[in-house]
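ESCALATION

Customer reports they have been waiting on this structure for their group meeting. Please prioritize. Original submission:
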Amino acid sequence: MTKTVTRSWPMPHPGILIVGASQAGAQVATSLRERGSTAPVTLVGAEPHLPYQRPPLSKAFLADKATEDSLLLRSAEYYRSNDIDVVTDEWVADVVLDRDGSGTAVTRSGRTFGFGRLALTTGGTPRRLSIPGADLDGVLYLRDLDDAVRLRGALKAARNVVVVGGGFIGLEAAAVARASGKEVVVVEALDRLLARAVAPVMSDFCLDAHQRRGSRILLERGVIGFEGNGTSVTSVALSDGTSVPADLVLVGIGLVPRTEIAERIGLRCEAGIVIDAYGRTSNPDVVAAGDCTDLDAGDGRLVRIESVANAIAQARAAAATLAGSPTPLAAVPWFWSDQADVKLQIAGLSAGHDSVVVRGEPASESFSVLYFREGEVVAVNAVNAPRDYMLVKRILDTGGSLPMDRAGDVDTPLKDLVVRVA
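Update from on-call: job pushed to the front of the queue and completed.
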């Protein structure tokens, strides 16, 4: 992926500036053109690459089954032919915002970009550990393409791999490492895997699935330090007084939204930049989308969803607002995770559920978990069960319900249980 600059500011009529060449940033730009906007659009990113897909970084790319070019969201020719300026390798360090929503952005290198409207799609950065040995060679994080290139190279030479954090990124990378013949240990501080995202039955399944494939899973253990031979990591010290050998460590303990620019121009930020269903920030002249945001659900809740589907949906809403035809975010959140030959598909938000129905047998590695709130299905986790996933997602998208007392009956096709709501 080569650096591409298709045109430079200043322009006679400043248009829309998108800060962050992420999936969300690229989607804002393309959605503006799809909506017929002819405003000048400039997309500025800190990385030296055109916008690319991130999900394969911990899956196909790490397993050496995808190339850098195959990750590209769009070609350089697409951006040129649609009059979208993509400026790479430039970190926006400061923004001055005028009362009418226009302003000026300045990069670390001193470049200046004028704009009439501003979109923030700044994403996030990996949460880092500040413990002894954290700076040793072989202690790595995974967020961007350059991280993935380093991790893929290190994995080829490694023998003992320790993954710190039992979340999606960590488990996906652990599965790749184990499939390539490495000794793998996953260390999770909480009492179960994926604790913030799924029900205990799904956590138990993931634990069993990874152990069946030869990984060690250590729960309720913190990491207190990394030990080395002076330059490179050799082991990981745990809170129970033990240690595990490691010549490669992947730390995957969450994401910190990048809100520095938003805070500088006075936007409301909690964990992320707070937006409404139209992508508007606390300053309605500024929009935001993607992993840098918290969605105000309108009922006092702030919802954070770190997924491609959410980034795309929020970006489309933000672009509609910028184009002068505000359209509220309406898409049902969805997500997927590939862990070896286990495909986990998630639709809906399970937060606040009061009942869980398991459909099928987890040991078979083909089953689903249905989440209910006050008798209504609100989410599904499907493992190698795409029909269950698609059907529940369709219910959430278009309306309908499932009888909770019969949803677990595998002898009855789930589609036969759907009750349509007028």
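Sent to customer with the following note: The CA atoms of residues 36 and 136 lie 51 Å apart.
Escalation resolved.
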